User: What shape does this take?
Amino acid sequence: MTIFSKIIKGEIPSHKIYEDDKVFAFLDIGPLSKGHTLVIPKEAVATLDQLSDDSAAAIGRVLPRLCRAVMKATGAKDFNILQNNGAAAHQVVMHVHFHIIPKFNDTGLGIDWDPQQFDHTAGAQLAKQIVASLEG
Assistant: This one.
């Protein structure tokens, strides 16, 4: 059981923003900026690829509404959505979660982006493999 499961059950207090039968949202207690919010499915799985279609759809329906509310409440004009999967990808709590991180001048998410060279031949083959995986 993760800390998020305990928060959903009310065993650990939180500053709840939203709750329905499939989704729970609350303020992050280690915020990168004012209004940093976590949006989690009530389904307890570690990574996004393990999430059921129903839970994914529920998050997809509410995430834009939560973003609008956080932006309105904080006055932020810009924001990031962050979602990590696995320890090597910086996931700390092994329960799917999305961060809504308002971006102000000097606070919010910082990103170092290091793009790689793209090989079109290898890319075409990879695209075919991904399509085949979707079909199979």
